[in-house]
Design brief:
Elements: H1 4-16, H2 25-37, E1 42-44, E2 50-55, E3 60-66, E4 77-79, E5 82-84, H3 92-104, E6 111-117, H4 125-132, E7 141-144, E8 149-157, E9 159-168, E10 172-173, H5 183-198, E11 208-216, E12 222-223, E13 226-235, H6 241-254, E14 258-266, E15 269-270, H7 276-289, E16 294-298, H8 304-307, E17 314-318, E18 331-333, H9 334-355
């Protein structure tokens, strides 16, 4: 249906529409109009997700990816074998490959659903709306479009918690050696104690705690009387949000001038490596790429952590390298993007046959 150049052009158009979390509307309209112009029924639901459905009956396969990106626009351009732009890897490369596969696939049986969601980089509002709603057929399996690498399938993600530390002290003149009233030092003390409670390390099996936002102080010559610190915690499989809650409760008792709270927490996820979606994508990689699929795990968190509430027949797969996600050097290889379209198309056929 689409030439390779048309597929590349569509991706570059998608990247040109800036869509950080909470501002996905214009991109959602672009995606909906693309589907409608090519003869498919597509709608935008009440939170901004784009949903398109083909076929009927079982099994039901979701192609699931997100429309939002982290903030920071990157000029969209084509350099050699790369397409550069914010979201090229995470997640518009996988999403546009899925969208084209949705439109081009021969559907032998069952129902195919494209779910392009909002807020994945934030609070997963779009996915939560799908999980709690009844406006989309319940999935027999889900392929989650994420930058895993062209020959890798992912069955394991770490969990994620966002911790907020707010410190209030009396402050004072910077010439006063009263370090006990320094809100910045107290906030960092909370961070250090959190690392100890969670036994933070650098291995996949360890907790990771990363300070991401810090807003403190009033003037250059004042002891800061206020400080707000956000800490991103990654939770390894085998641990849980309860471990984080216990650490936060202990910190709250220890620091009288600090409020320590959890903004949200998502559990880690690990699904069977031989579930139908893993097998379908693995077979597709073998047939399309002529390579053996590589079983992988991700250090981050994705909507897969939430989608497990619907089914454990899950796999994450898509073009792009996760190490480029959220960076100022974000790009996708053109060859990987085009090959991913064919892998998704073959995976759809494989899933319908396997599940049957």
């Amino acid at each position: 249906m689409f030439t390779d150049e048309a597929k590349i052009k569509l991706l570059m158009e998608a990247l040109s529409i800036y869509s950080p979390t909470g501002a996905e509307h214009y991109f959602a309209e672009f995606l909906r109009e693309l589907l409608i112009m090519n003869g498919f029924d597509a709608k935008i639901d009440d939170v901004g997700n784009v949903i398109a459905i083909r076929g009927e009956g079982g099994p039901v396969l979701w192609l699931h990816a997100h429309m939002d990106t982290v903030p920071g626009f990157i000029d969209v351009r084509r350099e050699g074998d790369k397409i550069i732009g914010r979201g090229a890897s995470d997640d518009k490369g996988p999403l546009m490959a899925m969208t084209i596969a949705f439109m081009e696939s021969d559907l032998p049986r069952g129902t195919l659903v494209l779910t392009a969601v909002v807020h994945e980089e934030g609070d997963s509002l779009g996915t939560a709306n799908l999980i709690n709603g009844s406006h989309v057929p319940r999935p027999s399996g889900i392929i989650v479009g994420e930058p895993t690498g062209i020959n890798r399938v992912v069955t394991k993600y770490r969990g994620n918690a966002k911790i907020e530390v707010v410190v209030r002290t009396r402050g004072g003149h910077a010439s006063n050696p009263d370090f006990a009233s320094n809100a910045i030092l107290m906030a960092m003390d909370v961070y250090d104690k959190l690392r100890n409670y969670l036994r933070v390390g650098v291995n996949y099996e360890d907790f990771l705690a990363t300070p991401t936002i810090m807003n403190c102080g009033e003037a250059e010559n004042m002891i800061p009387s206020n400080c707000r610190l956000i800490i991103d915690v990654r939770i390894p499989p085998g641990k849980s949000c309860n471990d984080v809650r216990s650490a936060v409760a202990a910190l709250s008792k220890e620091f009288n001038n600090a409020h320590v709270g959890i903004k949200w927490c998502v559990e880690p996820v690990e699904v069977p490596v031989n579930n139908p979606t893993v097998r379908a994508v693995s077979r597709a990689i073998i047939k399309v790429l002529g390579e053996r699929p590589v079983l992988a795990r991700k250090w981050g968190t994705s909507d897969m952590n939430e989608l497990v509430k619907l089914t454990r027949n899950l796999v994450a797969y898509g073009p792009g390298e996760g190490i480029l996600s959220h960076s100022l050097e974000e790009y996708i290889l053109i060859g990987d993007y085009l090959r991913a379209v064919e892998v998704y198309k073959q995976a759809i056929r494989e899933f319908m046959n396997i599940y049957g």
